[in-house]
Amino acid sequence: MKLGVIGCGKMAEAIIRGVIESGLHRSGEICGSDINRRKLGRLAKKTGILACSSNAEVILKSGVTVLAVKPQDISKVVSELRAAKARSRLVISIAAGVRICTIQQAIRNARVIRVMPNMPCLVGGGMSVFAAGSRATTADCRVAQRLFNCLGDVLQLSEKQLDAVTALSGSGPAFLAYCLDSMIDGAVREGLSRRIALKLATQTMFGTGKLLRELGTDPADLIAAVASAKGTTAAGLTVLESSCLRQALVRTIRAAAKRSRNLSGVGNP
Ligand SMILES: NC(=O)c1ccc[n+]([C@@H]2O[C@H](COP(=O)([O-])OP(=O)(O)OC[C@H]3O[C@@H](n4cnc5c(N)ncnc54)[C@H](OP(=O)(O)O)[C@@H]3O)[C@@H](O)[C@H]2O)c1
User: Which pTM does this prediction carry?
Assistant: First the structure.
């Protein structure tokens, strides 16, 4: 098997679908395991991957193994993998807040890569950032890059930057959805139906992201370009500035990054 996935939930399904749809691997080259046999059976039926009877079977069968269980389940899974005596494997963990050294110490000689993907991976619009462990090779990094490129954009950074990454691109979809939801509430009060407001707001968010990316525009320049003196945008921006939304969002990212550091046992600098 080229690819094995342990934990067949939402993110695993996104990875498996992305890999198959992009043509990186065929379904027959992928296997998976999950403590929930019904969920595993459903995914195997939907995607055509091989359902394994244990996590150990997955790592022993696969060239690359992705750990896609929740962070609180990682220690149980890695002790099963240690017992399977799977050595010198490439293990890619997407578990938020689980440090590379935790997995490296548990699975002897494993080459470990830690990835922080995000929810838009489910629709191919993801942002994944990975950090390589000390044993991971350049070829391993290329494997991670190719794998997560099937789900969107990929960037390699150092592990110490992953807490800020977790706050911005990992949790970011929820923060942006919060802002969008509030703007929709405002538009409904101004007379639009929720359905129409949702369409306008999501397309506006999508188009704004596309414009900033494709033209390489600085967000401050975009704000200045949309807001003409004494116009509608300027009137709205005055309220945003007086409500201290900028400071609130800075604090939001700080709180999420702090929580990520706490979860990974690093604490605050
Ligand atoms: N969702 C996101 O937006 C996102 C973003 C970035 C990173 N991540 C990371 O991605 C990982 C997976 O998240 P998810 O949202 O895909 O979670 P999920 O949908 O809950 O999937 C995890 C799966 O693992 C199964 N599982 C639990 N213990 C297991 C074990 N010992 N052996 C095998 N399978 C086991 C779970 O079964 P049960 O349901 O029966 O427990 C579940 O089916 C997490 O570590 C998360 O931090 C998620």
Answer: 0.92
